[in-house]
Amino acid sequence: MIEILQQIVNGVAIGGVYVLIALGLTTVFGILGIAHFAHGSVSMFGGYLTFFLVSGMGFPLLLAILVALLTGLVIGMAIEFLAYRPVRNANHINAFIVALGLTMMVEGLNLEFFGHEQVVIPTDLGRVFNIGGVTLPELRLYVILAAALLILAMTIFVEKTKTGQAIRAVAENRDAAILMGVNVNTIPLVVFAISTALGVCAGVMVGSLFAIAPGIGEGLVVKGFAVLILGGLGSIPGAVVGGLVLGITEALAAGFISSAYKDVIAFVVMITVLLVRPQGLMGKA
Amino acid sequence: MKPGLKLLVAGAALAFFVALPQLITVKYYLHLSVLALVWVIAAQGQNLIQGYTGYVSIVQAGFMGIGAYSTALMGLHFDLPVWLTILLAPCVTAIFALATGYPSLRVKGHYFAIVTLAFNMVIFIVLMNFHQLTQGEAGITGIPKPGSRDGWINFRDREVYYYFVLIVAVAMTALAWLIVRSRVGQTLMSIRQNEDLVGAIGIAAWKYKLFAFVVSAMFAGLAGALYAHYQSFINPEIFGVAQSLDAILAVIVGGSGTIAGPVIGAFVVVFLPEYLRFADSFRLILYGLLLVLATIFMPRGIVGTLAVVWSKLERRG
């Protein structure tokens, strides 16, 4: 029993990272219908940048994260404006190809700037809590708390603010939103800025919990899409539920079945859910 | 373009490919040309499901892997002749495609793309970790070439193998053309245009979609088998998601939903990264940038763009 609880706690931490990645993907998908494949690599850039600022420049961790976040905002807007906007009215597969090209570019830039060695963002959060036999490293606890906080902030932003309302309006019905005076040129910029910032947070979490290396970002974005499928494309609660389900499934599979095949098991769960509920766990039919 | 002219262009292209080994002076380019022809076969398959049916599948390299491993393993364990295993490889791939296509074709658009991507990852992970069968990352070595060592045709010769793959690639391109022209092909294209309408007039769209998916996988399985016997060595590395994305690129860059597109696209996908070697570590960045620019400025691919230019010239002349 303790063992199961332990794996669930581990799963929640990695699930939190998946949720953050998926939130970025799902808002972009909801508004623009783009499968933003470069999201993982851009997120890893954020992680790398944080590592560089902390280890190379001697920044305190929080300041480094702040700088990386702001950089993320700018990069997100640049990607939307320079790469996706020109193919906005073309076939969706074209936007996907642009996303692939961007992935290569960002992966290449990451290699160019930060090399191919794997890096771990140093934190001084070394304590380990023990709650009734379940061990919980301090770092993991903060990751879970930070993810929860970001999810909450994102939900409030989308549900309660004027801009959030405009984002939902565009997702619901783009033409009607234009008629109601929503500026459909600035909304995608805002969405990309926020989604990239969330991605940067996920990148920092991956970099401090595990490690950042070339290729990690691509694996992560695939997981992000799997989360969207599980939860339902374009749905924020879906991303949260899907991310946690995927993270916990993986942790349980790694703990009790086989760590080599944990991804296979996670994908099998995803495909099964899709067959039973094609609209995802939280999607509308 | 008039049909007669199309035939002329096809004939000229064929003559070019037949003469290519004589024009090439650097041995390495002949090697790349063989790889490109293998990719032509895989890309023609990808085009059937992606270009004509409108379902973007991201598992083509995974299916190439199934073809490559099944031909190698059947030869190794059952001691079957190479020719037979090359022919059986697409059939094994078809079985896998049936099993994966049936559930995944129930969903559309991005869902379908991501489910097939997940299948590719599953194939890759199994190839990597099922050591008893696949020998994992180390891969399988010593895969025999077709034909005997002292036969009248020596398939160990790179030029001979080039012509062998060329014949298969031409045959498969012709087959793709026949499928597209047939009533089945017309139905596939109407599914791409409006699937609901196809269903409404009483056509079971799922059968046609499954057909397109399985046939496209068989193309990939054959390509994988030819690759395995050409290289004599396979490991999971080249059957990953990145290579499936290359198959999609070949179709899009060449011209989606055209027969000439995948041929041109396959050569671009194989040769362009080589030509970008001068850029050294910036190669990946440059390749990505070219891709983004090409998609923005040539959304219909090379063939589509040429067709537009041609029809403008015709109207003027």
Characterise the protein shown here.
The complex is a heterodimer of chains A (285) and B (317). Chain A is an all-alpha fold. Chain A has one domain (2-276): ABC transporter involved in vitamin B12 uptake, BtuC (Orthogonal Bundle). Helices cover 74% and strands 3% of the residues of chain A. Chain A has eleven helices and two strands; from the N terminus they run H-H-H-H-E-E-H-H-H-H-H-H-H. A two-stranded antiparallel sheet of chain A has the order 1-2. Chain A is globular, with a radius of gyration of 19 Å. Chain A starts with a helix and ends in a 9-residue tail after the last helix. Chain B has 317 residues and is mostly helical. Chain B has one domain. Helix content of chain B is 77%, strand content 1%. Chain B contains 14 helices and two strands; from the N terminus they run ααααααβααααβαααα. Chain B has helices at residues 3-23, 27-52, 60-78, 82-104, 109-129, 131-134, 158-181, 183-193, 195-200, 205-231, 241-254, 260-275, 283-297, 301-316, and strands spanning 140-141, 233-234. A two-stranded antiparallel ribbon of chain B has the order 1-2. In chain B, helix 1 packs antiparallel against helix 7 (158-181), helix 7 packs across helix 8 (183-193) and helix 8 (183-193) packs across helix 10. The longest helix of chain B has 27 residues, at 205-231. Chain B starts with a helix and ends with a helix. Classes of the chains: A mainly alpha (285), B mainly alpha (317). The A-B interface holds A 29, 35, 83, 86-87, 90-94, 96-98, 100-109, 111-112, 218, 222, 225-226, 228-229, 233, 260-261, 263-264, 267-268, 270-271, 274-275, 278 and B 50, 56, 103-104, 106-107, 109-111, 113-115, 117-119, 121-122, 125-126, 128-129, 241-242, 245, 248-249, 252, 256, 281-292, 295-296, 299.
